[in-house]
What we know:
- With 624 residues, this protein is of the alpha+beta class.
- The chain has 4 domains: 4-231 and 309-390, 2-Layer Sandwich (Nucleotidyltransferase, domain 5); 233-307, Actin, Chain A, domain 4, CATH 3.90.640; 397-504, Sandwich (Substrate Binding Domain Of DNAk, Chain A, domain 1); 521-607, Substrate Binding Domain Of Dnak, Chain:A, Domain 2 (Up-down Bundle).
- Strands 1, 2, 3, 4, 11 and 12 form a 6-stranded mixed β-sheet that branches.
- The longest helix has 30 residues, at 521-550.
- The relative contact order is 0.10.
- It binds adenosine-5'-diphosphate and magnesium ion.
- Residues 14-17, 204-207, 232-234, 270, 273-274, 277, 339-341, 343-344, 366 line the site of adenosine-5'-diphosphate.
- Adenosine-5'-diphosphate is lined by residues 14-17, 204-207, 232-234, 270, 273-274, 277, 339-341, 343-344, 366.
Amino acid sequence: MGEKNDIIIGIDLGTTNSLVAFADEAGPHLIAGENGPDDVIVPSVLGFDEAGVLKTIGVEAREHAVEQPTTTIHSVKRLMGRGFADVAQEAAALPYRVERRDESGERDIASIIVGERSFTPPELSALILRDLKQRAETHFGRSITKTVITVPAQFDDAQRQATRDAGQIAGLEVVRIVNEPTAAALAYGLDRKEDATIAVYDLGGGTFDISILRLEDGVFEVLATNGDTHLGGDDFDNALISLFASEIRDQFGIEITSPTIKQQLRTLSENIKKRLSDDDEAQIQIAIGNDKVYEKTITRDDFEKMIDPFVARTLDACSRAMKTAGLTQSEINQVVLVGGSTRVPYVRRRVGEVFDTKPYTALNPEHVVAMGAGVQAAILSGIERDVLLLDVTPLSLGIETLGGAMGKLIPANVKIPCQASETFTTFKDGQTNIKINVLQGERELADDCRSLGVFELGGIPPMPAGLPKIDVTFLIDQNGILSVSAKEQRSGKAASIQIIPSHGLTRDEVKRMEQEAITHAREDMAAHHLIDVRTTLEFDLNKVEGMLDRYETQFTVNETTDFSKRISELRSFARSCDDATTINERREAFNQSTLPLAERAMTAALSGSIASTDGDDDRAPEKH
Length: 624
Ligand code: ADP
Ligand code: MG
C-alpha cells in the first residue's frame, strides 16, 4: 500500500442494502461490522424517534419498518437527485412523509419529514455512508476519507451528483462514481481478460436492472440498459404475504391489521422465500391469537408459479436491452448475476435460458457490486492486483475423497480453459448423499489444502456401496472461473458450484504452498497411503456388517457376536495403528476368516430374497 492516507474504500450504496469493501493483492474483501465476519450487509434503513432524532441504522431499524412506518426511512436511493415533481408518484407509495422543499432559484427538491425535522435525500444517504465509513475505520484502525461509490448505470448527472453530495456530507471524498454493472464485472476480474460482451442481470429488493457492457482493452462501455424500478424480491415477498393473508382470512375470518403481526408476516415470508432457494419446501406457522395457529407448507414448485409473472417481466427487459444494443443472445459472451434475488434457482434457470449461457454465480450476488467497488478503489490507489499467471492454474484442484485425502483432478500449471472428469462412488450401502469439498493445493491431505467451497449431491437412489457412478467434472473457462459439477449416472441427479480459484491467493501464497508440498512430500505420501488402507478396511468391514445384518438367520448367535466384536476391535486397531502394512495384513486375515460365512450368505441369497437397506450418510466420495 502506498501513502498512509491513501486507503480508498468501495461502497455499494443500495436501495435495500449497503456494503463496504476494499481490495488488496489477494483480491476484494468485504468489511464486517461488530457482529462477526458474516455481518457485512447494512440494510439501507434509518430508524428515527418521533422527534426526528436518529436512533438506529441497518438491521435493527429494518426490524421495525412495518411497525413504525413514519419514522423508519428506507429506499432513499429512489429519491436521490430527483425533483419533487419527478418523485411525486414514488413518494405517494412510501409510508413516510415526502414534501416539496422550495429552494429559491433551484429546482424543487424532495425532502423527507421525520417528526419536527426535514432531511434531503443526500443527508439521509450520508447517515448510511457514515456508518459504513466507521466500519472501515474500525477495521483499518485509522481515519478514512476517500471512497468509490457505485450507482445504477442509468443514473443521470443529477443523481450522480446527489450521491457525491451524500459522500461529502459524510466526510468522504468520492474519488469515483462507478456503474454497478461495471463493478460486478470488475469483481469477476473480467477487465483483465480479452474483449467481450457482458450482460449484467441485477435483481435486488425493489429494483431490476439489466445492463449490457462492452469490454474493450480493459475498459467497459455501457451499450444498453433496461429494467424496472419497481420490480424485485419485495414482489416475491408480497406474493407470499397476500397468499397467507387471504388464507388466514378464509380459514379464521380474521383480517390482519395489527402492525406487529404484519411485521411478523413480512419477516416470515422473506425467510420462507430465502429457504426455498436452498430447500424444496418451507413451512410457515403464525399464532393468530385465541390458540389459533395458521400453518402452511410452500413447495419450490408453488413458489416458482407465484413469481413467474415477475421473472417474465425481467426477461422481457433483457430482450429489449439486447435489441437496443443491436445484439442477439449468441453475441453475449458472459452473464453476471447480481442482487440477492438472483439466488432464487428459478431466476438463475430462466436467465440462463434467455441468454443461452450459464450465468456467473461464483461470487455472492449480494456482495459482488461492493467487491467491485473495492477493486476499483484499489486500482485508483495503485494497489497492484497480484497478477498470478492468468492463463494457467497456479495450484492443483481436486476434491476431498474418503478418509480426508486430496483427489486431484486438474494439476498445477495447466493452460486454461481446461476440463477434467473422474467417476466416484458411494462408500456405504444405500448412501443417498455425497458431499463434495472442492480443494486447492499440492498437499496429499485435504486438511492441508485450501477448501474453495462445499456442495452436496442428494437424491442418489439407494444402492449397494460402490455401485453408483458419480461423474465429477471440473471446468475452468477462459476467465478462470471454475465450475464443479457432480452427476449420478443412473438417476441423472446433478448439483454444481462455481468458484474463482484465484481469489484470496497471492504469488507469495502460491510459493509457500508449493514449498510446503516439497518439504512434506514423503510424510504426505505415507499419510495418503495410510488413508487408502484404512478406507479399504472400513469398506470391507462395512460389507461384513451388512452381511451379518441381512442374513442374520443364517448365523448362530455366537458367530454374530464373535464377528461384531472382531469388527469393532479391528476398527479401533486401525485407528490407533499408523503402519499401513500391518493394517493390511490384519484386514486380509480377517477377510479370510469371513469366507465360510459369506458362502452361507450367498446360498441364502440364491434361494431367498435380499432385503434392501437404506441410509443417508453424506460421506465423501470414493474413487470408482
Ligand atoms: P439492493 O441492490 O436493492 O439493495 P440486494 O441485492 O441486497 O438489494 O437484494 C435484496 C433482496 O434479495 C431482498 O429482496 C432479499 O429478500 C433477497 N434475497 C436475499 N437472499 C436471498 C435468498 N437466499 N433467496 C432469495 N432472495 C434473497
Ligand atoms: Mg444492488
